Amino acid sequence: MRGVPERSLWAAPADVNGGTQWHPERHWVPLFTEGEGAAGTPERRRVPPSGERERSPYAVPTVQLVEEDHMPAEKRSLAGTVVAVTGASAGIGAAAARLLGEAGANVVLGARRTERLDALVEEIGADRALAVSLEVRDPEQNRAFVQAAVDRFGRIDSIVANAGIGMYGGIEDSSDDDLTRMIEVNFSGTVWSVRAAVPHFRRQGDGGDVVIVSSVAGLRGGADEAVYAGTKFAQVGLAGSLDRELREDGIRVSAICPAGVETEFAIGAGRTEGDPALAAYLRPEDVAFQIVTALEQPRRLRTTLWAQWSMGQGS
Ligand SMILES: NC(=O)c1ccc[n+]([C@@H]2O[C@H](COP(=O)([O-])OP(=O)(O)OC[C@H]3O[C@@H](n4cnc5c(N)ncnc54)[C@H](OP(=O)(O)O)[C@@H]3O)[C@@H](O)[C@H]2O)c1
């Protein structure tokens, strides 16, 4: 805009979800931007609510307008950045891709079910999203996945290592093959994704973000998930060590540790579709919000470990 600098007005909701509940994502909601119109006169434009926000259970009533000067925290814009997400065909990964797209990022989506990825690309917009077939257990496919991001968008800013599987039961209950697959997808797959992205971050020379989607099971495993929890502990350990290795290159490493999330995860392997207990779980959008929040921190700071529960879940 010419002359008058662009600024925003924000709504501070006093009453969220019909009560006095506070929700960090919805605490401040942009309502208008103000700038200079074509005729040189001040102009205020309404920020259209996104489809996601309209569907949100946290739909926010407008109560009070305050100026952006009052915003307490600095926020990094994701607009134009390039974020690659593994396991983007379902659950947390798909929700993260949508939210990143809404935040203006270019997203590169990896998973085996490419028909789902193609549908997501159409939803986000083919100009800003790319689908790539990816088996995370294969190091070469991870390198090709990251290279596809660089070829298409010119660079890569962030990798979200999210692909994972789970099965519940005692140490004797799963087959050797199933446990091998879980260990390889959850841990080896994370290693291969990170190893594919880091050389690009280093070559670009302006930092990068590694986000690893682990679990609260990676902080304290339950009695019916020992091997799964082991893979998630391994991711947390990997993230902590990587943070110490990569910080000097300006590369941030964040481990996201959600409690149970209502997705397709472990359905038929310890969870049952439609189980009413799942309604109290986190939603994939909650974890997506955490991922976006980690990336939106200004690059001068880092938060290495995020644990997240719904209010209906005990810790
Ligand atoms: N749901 C929970 O309760 C929960 C809680 C804490 C942490 N987590 C973690 O969150 C992450 C995402 O889980 P979710 O709940 O979103 O599960 P989900 O809905 O089942 O999605 C899993 C994703 O991983 C991908 N994937 C699985 N195996 C793969 C492979 N071999 N190669 C490439 N991609 C593969 C799947 O894609 P394709 O099948 O198309 O390849 C899918 O996109 C996992 O790491 C999980 O451990 C989940």
Automatic annotation (TrEMBL):
Family, per entry: Belongs to the short-chain dehydrogenases/reductases (SDR) family.
Signal peptide as annotated in the record: none
Entries under SUPFAM superfamilies matching the protein: NAD(P)-binding Rossmann-fold domains
Annotated stretches, region: Disordered: 1-57
Name of this protein: NADP-dependent 3-hydroxy acid dehydrogenase YdfG
Keyword Metal-binding recorded: no
Basic and acidic residues bias locations: 42-56
Source organism (scientific name): Motilibacter rhizosphaerae
Annotated coiled-coil segments of the chain: none
Entry keyword annotation includes Oxidoreductase: yes
Pfam family, one: adh_short
GO molecular function, one term: oxidoreductase activity
UniProt KW keywords: NADP, Oxidoreductase
Domain of life: Bacteria
